Amino acid sequence: MDKMIDDEILVTQFKAGSQKAFDTLMKRYERRIFGYLLRSVRNYEDAEELTLEVFFKAYRALPSWQPKAKFSTWLYTIASNLSIDYHRSKARKPEFIFEDEEIIETRLVATDISSNPEKQLEEKERGRIIREAVDELSSKQKSVFMLTRYEGLQIKEVAETLGMAEGTVKIHLHRAMKKLQTILQPLWDNNEI
Amino acid sequence: MPKCKKFEAQAIDYAYGELDTALVSKFEHHLTTCNSCTRKVKDFERVLHLVDEAEGEFLPHPIAPHNLEMRLYRRLAEVPAEKPTLLTRLSEYVSKSLFILQEQKVASLCLFIAAVISIAFFVGNPMQNGPDDYVANGLDSADARIEQYQRQDIQRSMEDVLRNKHLRNSDSWDTVSQLNRVSDRAQGTDLANIAKKHLKNVNSDF
């Protein structure tokens, strides 16, 4: 039933005093926003906090919000800005990870494997390397890539979300693809994939 | 193999599924004659396949954050809403007016001028928030929800002080100060009376 109601109608209902309308909007988008932020920051707790912040900001700003784009686009805009701030503050405060932690993590992974431990470990390691390659992208390149690839946004919607021209979005996307190819190419050149 | 730079962007768009439909057949024709572009498309498709696989492994199904609704309303109860500054109200007022002007141009212009004149003459300052604005904005039920969470929060503090501190003599001073805080926060509600009653008991125990 809820799915039948457009976001715009729910926004109007919220502005008219319906708290339930905001709850419906939140239920509708919490998974998507959380997934986007989780991929962006790669940390469950931080992604949860950021998701809370997105809806907190949306709740406070919604009564005076003028719809120039779709509601979902607006939510992604808030999420993208928060993610950029997060990465900026992380860059200012570098985290020191002890090498031992990584070894422990590898051991933990190795203990929960049942059938073919070596192969599964290799696959997990490969997945980690690939995700690290994605994290190597600049925050704008990564946002463009994630929004188009995993959030199903059109180039035009990404442009609205990130406040840039469609041409600029394409440039970021091309650079992201070339960078990923440069980083990942050695994997298949060395027959590791 | 000679590199074909001319179609590199199209190779990316093609692999990504973003190539303009009008260009697809022309590019596919180019692929039949250009090994460099064919290889590039394969490489980009491979990149996407690998990244999709790794991201799918990282987050196989969409998941919801834990207890988001309750945490949001608790946060809303804790952080008071900022009162809009004069500058914010002014810019909001201007942007609202511009939005209407863009939509309905001439009719809106006349209506806007008439509205500004009538507001200036009969109402006074159009940017001043009236006491009923929150009800008019439809936030009454949100306020009720926030109040409810605030009440629950106070109740939790009260339970905490009674359960954890009240019975331990060494914490008497701490108990009194926490009960005082609860009593202050619960001003005007029945919880304040309960807190005062417990305060009396604690003080008589000294």
Explain what you see:
The complex is a heterodimer of chains A (193) and B (206). Chain A is mainly alpha-helical. Chain A has a domain at 1-95: RNA polymerase sigma factor, region 2, helix turn helix motif (Rna Polymerase Sigma Factor, Chain: A, Orthogonal Bundle), CATH 1.10.1740. Chain A is 76% helix and 0% strand. The longest helix of chain A is centred in the C-terminal third of the chain and has 24 residues, at 166-189. With 206 residues, chain B is an all-alpha fold. Chain B folds into three domains: 8-58, no CATH class; 68-134, no CATH class; 139-205. Mean pLDDT of chain B is 75; it is low at 128-139. At the A-B interface, helix 2, helix 3, helix 6 and helix 9 of A face helix 1, helix 3, helix 4, helix 5 and helix 7 of B.
Structural class of chain B: mainly alpha
The amount of beta strand of chain A, in percent, is under 5%
Strands of chain B, count: 0
Helix percent band of chain A: over 70%
Q: How would the global form of chain B be characterised? A: flat
Count of runs of 4 or more consecutive helical residues of chain B: 9
- Pattern of helices and strands of chain B: HHHHHHHHH
Return the average pLDDT of chain B rounded to an integer: 75
CATH architecture grouping of the domain at 1-95 in chain A: Orthogonal Bundle
